[in-house]
Records
---
Amino acid sequence: SSDEEGGEEYLFKIVIIGDSAVGKSNLLSRYARNEFNLHSKATIGVEFQTQSMEIDGKEVKAQIWDTAGQERFRAVTSAYYRGAVGALIVYDISRRTTFDSVGRWLDELKTHSDTTVAMMLVGNKCDLENIRDVSVEEAKCLAEAEGLFFMETSALDSTNVKKAFEIVIREIYNNVS
Ligand code: GDP
Ligand code: MG
């Protein structure tokens, strides 16, 4: 934070990680622009989007980074993680393999981060209850063991999307203020 005109400014970098096609880009577009894309192309994506919220009467800006498809080639670079103080680790509740990858993503995140990172485990596509492949209980269990917040979301119907980002942003704010 820095003083400016008597107030304080906060800018937090948050990264979204997880296997390809779990819905990372759509979580970001839902949160930042209230948009959802049924046929989103992994290669089309902006580096990051900035979204503001108010905490304790202060403007807090979150700069949220999207991999733009790099994860397909296991080539998410250290630059992507640099300076991140928050992370959403996303899996798809209808595809177990994406949940099995969470540990690897956590390791990568920890390898690249040098400060406290507020972390949220996100089980996306909770609208696909009929083809659920990962139970809420086991995800909660993993989150507890790893010290992560946990939430199921749907970028499609908007369930918990705003909430997931805002919990992370508040936790970062608590960590630094
Ligand atoms: P990314 O590769 O992790 O960035 O995933 P995308 O955001 O590109 O989404 C991959 C596919 O999953 C796309 O076809 C999306 O329309 C779809 N998708 C994303 N989020 C949801 C969701 O919450 N529910 C459902 N049913 N589909 C989703
Ligand atoms: Mg993407």
---
Amino acid sequence: ALTIGIVGLPNVGKSTLFNALTNNDVLAANYPFATIEPNVGVVNLPDPRLAQLAEIFGSERLLPAAVSFVDIAGIVRGASEGEGLGNQFLANIREADAIAQVVRGFSDPDVIHVDGSVNPASDMETINTELIIADMQTVEKALVRFEKELKNRKIEASVVETAKAAQAALNDGKLLSHTDIDLEEIRELGLLTAKPFLYVFNVDEVVLQDEARLAELAALVAPAKAIFLDAKIESELVELDPADAAELLASIGQDESGLDQLARVGFETLGLQTYLTAGPKEARAWTIKQGATAPQAAGAIHTDFEKGFIKGEIISFADLVETGSVAEARAKGKARMEGKEYIMQDGDVVEWRFNV
Ligand code: GDP
């Protein structure tokens, strides 16, 4: 499954957020290096369509799509020099499909800031610089190997050129995802700054209602997406029943929890979308890549569905809701038979036909 790696300086609230993500008891301690082992947390993608589907099909339960997060131990200034958590950190982060950087915006004087003061812009620069340095080292090592392989005619000159272009951009202090270099040929290097990024600002609850401040912070990371939450409140929200949680959110002027936002924006950042299936047992959202074909989408349920794919009967969610039932959608010509070439649309409601 695709996962998002959570990074950030020590004491910015990663463990607190992660506790909320897993609703378990990962140690949230007020000192640097509290999080050493990577952990995985899963959060459901909120999808109000499932409840509507369940009503139409009389489904017993709802199964939303989910996004996984890996809590990766904190980076410190100089981590890429091997001073901090170097190698294990790099190994973990390389496996992540996207990176969520938690940035401290809360001001609590009782929580020590590793650099002495709360400054989101400077914190992001510290982290991003470490990631850039790590990539520079990776590319430098690879270039030595590439030059040899080029001499032995094992690779094309374009591979070396791509690596050199990446090296130049990194030397300029750029994140590779902010350049238009086509990195396909050196994908095997797993460069960190080539991954999609998103930013999670952990702010005081009053800031959540301060539109001007939020716009300022969002501008710091654009075009990457920013999420704003109060990790302490998130960890309280997961302990509450839905009615009380909604009340707490309303009291701080929010209509969606930070975790729901994180799932939604994380999903987009990973380039994913969902399609839906429903029956008397369950109404379910399935995760696919944006642009997936019908057979690939069927493969999300079972590889045999992809191998034996024949076609799918597809009704758009909007059409299904409007007509009120599959039978009525068919009668009105809203149910389409789609074949192998069909590109899935978000919210397609599907019944697959396949050979086993
Ligand atoms: P990590 O090192 O990034 O994993 O940070 P932790 O989650 O362990 O948080 C460090 C300290 O900051 C802990 O004492 C938390 O209780 C506190 N903390 C985390 N998030 C918030 C927040 O949103 N507001 C306040 N006031 N304190 C927080």
